[in-house]
Amino acid sequence: xxxxxxxxxxxxxxxxxxxxxxxxxxxxxGYDESEAFGRPAPESVTPLTRCAWPLLQVLVxxxxxxxxQSLSIFKTRLIDMIHQFGRQADLAACSPETVTxxxxxxxxxxxxxxxxxxxxxxxxxxxxTLLSWFYDQTWGGDKSFQIIERALHDEQRExxxxxLEILLLGFQGRFRTERDxxxxxHLLTEKIFRILYPPPSTGFGNFAPEVVVAAERKRLIxxxxxxxxxxxxxxxxxxxxxxxxVHLNQINMHLQQEFxxxxxxxxxxxxx
Length: 272
What we know:
Blueprint: H1 21-29, H2 47-63, H3 71-91, H4 96-115, H5 130-135, H6 141-154, H7 157-168, H8 181-196, H9 208-223, H10 226-263
InterPro entries: T4/T6SS_DotU (IPR017732), T4/T6SS_DotU_sf (IPR038522)
Transmembrane segments: 226-246
Keywords: Membrane, Transmembrane, Transmembrane helix
């Protein structure tokens, strides 16, 4: 094994506590969310990202402000999921080195996300993090970005794809304590994005912005709910009715004035 890679403990136990998934979900989330980690990944992602998708969903939950009820059960669930990630990645024939690197980043990102919460900070979690559980290391904020930099250099798409996800979900590692850390993470995220999704080389570079704008408009239209169009149509119709009503009222008043002048025998325009 490459000595620069984090070492994965194969002897780490599969579970700290024995409990079924639905019970775990009830304890962890407070409601029946037993399928929370089973939602499918997009078809466009790599096999390794698909294997990591349940753990990335946990990052979404934690970052969205979920409050833990049982820290020990939650950690048990994550340990089981990390083992499952490794098994699925092996079945998908992913490179062992790539799996090791991605698992290291996931452990570090999950630890950071939990310890940034009010319910995970200053708890027993910091005494026994996921990183220490699987790799016997207490801090992965530096090593994770070394993995990312090496993946950028070698254009390792599978590693970069997961790295992009965890960065977008708030992972900062060593940059969290630096004064311009957020800016550096933002620049790194943009760099990864450009490698993963380069602009199309169609030979019509001047028209690229228009193409992007058109695609974005199409995307927005696709996700605007139907009821929004119904409400907008009703508002426009109501505005037209009001305008016609005012216009007809003005015509009616003008005709009444003319009839009144005719009845009194005053010629039209008299007195001017």
